Amino acid sequence: MTYVDGFVAAVPTASKEAYRKHAETTAAIFKEHGALSIVECWGDDVPEGKINSLHTAVMRKEDETVVFSWTLWPDKAKRDAGWQKIMADPRMQPDVNPMPFDGSRMIYGGFDMIVGP
27 CB contacts (<8 Å, ≥6 apart)? Predict the structure, then answer.
């Protein structure tokens, strides 16, 4: 069954192009290691909540934009194997491919798809 990794992060708004380039590079590496597809979305209509919201979940600062992305995998076993290869890939090392945002505020998780294509 298809498996999904979902991510939400706050990215400096001025770094949109750097983030796009980083996402393109990373997506190619993920696909090499088994991902079916990667979707990266730049926040456009992300309301602030009264109790909680995507903004507060990632502790977004005034000069940042919320991004939402997901990766589709054939199944959890291929995702787990893919992640091991991704983390060992020299192109994913922080000194080679630094994230253009504060990764400590990124939220993420893995999900079994129960409705979808």
Answer: 35, 38, 40
